[in-house]
Automatic annotation (TrEMBL):
<keyword id="KW-0029">Amino-acid transport</keyword>
<dbReference type="GO" id="GO:0005524">
    <property type="term" value="F:ATP binding"/>
</dbReference>
<dbReference type="Pfam" id="PF00005">
    <property type="entry name" value="ABC_tran"/>
</dbReference>
<keyword id="KW-0547">Nucleotide-binding</keyword>
<dbReference type="InterPro" id="IPR003593">
    <property type="entry name" value="AAA+_ATPase"/>
</dbReference>
<comment type="similarity">
    <text>Belongs to the ABC transporter superfamily.</text>
</comment>
<feature type="domain" description="ABC transporter">
    <location>
        <begin position="7"/>
        <end position="236"/>
    </location>
</feature>
<keyword id="KW-0067">ATP-binding</keyword>
<dbReference type="InterPro" id="IPR052156">
    <property type="entry name" value="BCAA_Transport_ATP-bd_LivF"/>
</dbReference>
<dbReference type="InterPro" id="IPR003439">
    <property type="entry name" value="ABC_transporter-like_ATP-bd"/>
</dbReference>
<protein>
    <submittedName>
        <fullName>Branched-chain amino acid transport system ATP-binding protein</fullName>
    </submittedName>
</protein>
<dbReference type="InterPro" id="IPR017871">
    <property type="entry name" value="ABC_transporter-like_CS"/>
</dbReference>
<dbReference type="InterPro" id="IPR027417">
    <property type="entry name" value="P-loop_NTPase"/>
</dbReference>
<keyword id="KW-0813">Transport</keyword>
Amino acid sequence: MDKATGYRIEQCSAWYGQARVLWDIDFHVGPGEVVGVLGRNGAGKTTLLKSIAGVLRKQTGHATLNGRDIGSQSSWQISRAGISLVREGAILPKSLSVAEVIALGARLAGIRGREPVSMATILERFPLLSGLEDRKVALLSGGQRQAVALASGLASRPDMLLLDEPSAGLAPTVAASVFRAISTFAADGVMVVVVEQHEAWLRGLAERTYWIDLGRVAASKTNRSDSEQQGGRNEIAS
Ligand code: ATP
């Protein structure tokens, strides 16, 4: 991959207190690429997203976004540089309306010096939210909350979106509609990293997949060509 574009982190390690959770992970995402992250419960998938977003107290690694060194930056600086971490919709503030949550994302776009994505575009991408703009988060279904979390991430005009189990708790048909929306982000050139439990659900969405096991990249796979590399390597070929 061209080092001046895309995202790359090398030798990423992370700790919770004294406990080391990630071990020397090399990971990259190309422009407009969707990359999946799979692994068992407790493997370190969420911790990898948190490390990329810079939210952990103790982490190491050399990270670049579009050729710019962001490795030593704070979570706020990393966010301002263009990386948005979208957590589960379940943790959205319940007293806010759909439009207010999306407006928070739009405000971040402004801080990044970018035009926010219009509400019309957002509703086109997330038909699930049509007519719900004034509804409070507390009154939404799980799928609707997940869509609001993603819509707010999209409104922030990120270079890269980090999505932590966007299908969690959703019926397959709702998850499919959320995944359809995600694939439109990539079509706009946004880099997308999706942590997912179900490998089958990533098919057709992620171009490449990293398998995390015990905090290391145990395998990686290019989904389009079905070429696979197993064990002992911490990165797939650029
Ligand atoms: P899951 O699929 O169950 O969400 P995961 O692959 O996302 O799992 P992580 O949440 O990254 O796994 O957790 C990796 C390891 O770090 C686990 O052993 C977990 O118990 C531990 N861990 C996660 N969060 C914390 C924390 N805040 N403090 C201490 N240990 C943590």
